[in-house]
Amino acid sequence: MYRLQPFFSLLSLLCLLTFAQVALADTTDQTASDSTERLAIAVERLVQLLEQESAVEHEEKQLRKLDIAISYLNFRSRRIEIMDRDLSMTKSERERIEDVLQQWQERKEQLKTAMEEESGEKKKEMEQTLQELELREKAIELRRSRIEEDIIIMENKVVDLQNQLDAVESYVQRHLQL
Asked: What is the pTM of this model?
């Protein structure tokens, strides 16, 4: 609206000048008709300028929206990449834990086989070692289950972010005119 004020001021000044010219000149109807025609042309030109300015403002507003949407796309894309990398690292950690569990299973089997052959004090030590391995194994299995939950949560977040990204991308494609 503040941009329209100079046009209204110009229009008012033009009207005053036209009417002052008509009053001072004491001219014929032809001169008054010419002045009125010039005034009508000036008003029409001002209307055209206002329409053009309104269209330019609307286009600038759309471009600002698109710029914000594109910035959002860039931000979310980087965030998804980071989350994918974190997800890969978490899955690698899960695989390492599964390898450790497999090794401990093998160690337990070896220990059980060795216990069958031993007796006395050596067998008690082996039983205690076996119990320690089983406790460690339970702790590692708990950790693996927490990691599994984290993986599921991270995968869901990535899907949600990807859906948001797709929605913004479709908005940009709909409104971007190349």
From this structure: 0.61
